[in-house]
Design goal:
The protein has three domains: about 50 residues; about 90 residues, Alpha Horseshoe (Serine Threonine Protein Phosphatase 5, Tetratricopeptide repeat), CATH 1.25.40.10; about 140 residues. The protein is about 75% helix and about 5% strand.
Length: about 350
Amino acid sequence: MSFLSKLWNYIKTLSLVAALIAAIITGGWVAYSYDSSKKPPVAAKQLIVEGDNALNIGRYADAKRIFEEELKANPQNKQAAWYLQIADIPQTLSQPEFKEAIDILYQQNPNDSHVNLFLGEYYAANDQPDKAVPYFEQAITQNPKLAEAHYDLARLYDQSGNYEDAKVESLNAIDSSPTPKYRNNLGNIYFKQLHYEEAIKEYGKNKEYPLSALESAKIYWRLEYLSQAISYQNQAIDWLNDKTIMTKPENEDTWDFEAAPAKRFKLVTLEEKKSYAYYCLSVSLYLQGDSEGAEKTLQKLRDLNFDHPVTIDELLAADLDALIQANGNFEKPVAAYKALYLKNSPTDIP
C-alpha cells in the first residue's frame, strides 16, 4: 500500500472517531436539555416551598403574594394556582359564602390538608367542636407539619378543659414552627392551670411580642407583684410604639382573648392594642396606690386620640373579675377602678 493510501485511511479513521464523539456529546446534551425541560425551575420550586410554609403557619397574605409572583412568571403552574385559591379563602371566614367556597374546593380535592383545616375552622367558629375535631385530625394526618391545625386543635382541647392534650398539640405546633402565637397559646394553657412559673417562662421566649408581656403582667397581678407587672406592661408599650417591631408579621396578628368559655374578645388594630396596654398599666398603678400615676397614664391615652371600642372596657372588666376571683385582696380597689374608669370612654374620664 502506498504512502498516500495509508494516509487517507488514517484520516478517515480519525474523522469517524471525531464524528462518533460529537454524536455522543450532542445526544447527551439533548437528553440533558429534555430532562431539564421537564423539571420546574429552581426558583419556582423555592417559591412553592416558601408559599407552602406560609400557608402552614397561617400567613395567608404572604402566601398569596408568593403564589401570585410565581404565576406571573409561570402562568401554567397548576400547583401555584391551587395554592392561590387556598390562600384567598381565609379572608371570607366570617362571611356566608365561606362554607360554599370550601365545599367547592373539597369536591375538587378532599385530600388537601388546608381544605380540611378550613372546614374544621368553620365548625369551630360555629360552636360545633365535635364536627371540627375530625377535620383538624384529618388535616394533620395529611400534613403533620400543618402548624395551624395543631394550634386550632389545641384551642379546642383547651376550651373543653382537656389541658393535657391541648399542651401536646401546642407543642406540636411549636415543633412545626416556633412562632410567638403558638408559644403564647401554650403559655395561656399553663396560666389556666395556675402553673404560673411555666407560663411566664413560655411567654418569656417571645421577644418583642407585646401580647406575651401583657399576659405575664396578669400573672404578677395575681401574685401581688405589682412592680413586676408594671415593668412588663411598660415593656409592652415600648414595643407597641416601635414601628419596626410592630411591622413584624406576628405583631400584625389579631389578639384573641378568651374571657369565659363562651366569651371571646378580639383586638385587631394597633390602636386597640395600645389602648388595652395603657389601660392595663393604669390598673397596676392604681392597685399599687398610685392613683396619680394611673390618671397620667390614661391622660397619655387621651392625648393619642384613641377612639377605642367598648370591647376594650369589657375585656378589661373581664380581666379584673378574673383577678378578684384569684385574689380577693384586690376586690375593693378593683371595684373603685372600674367605677372610675370603665363606665366611660377615655375622653370622658374625669
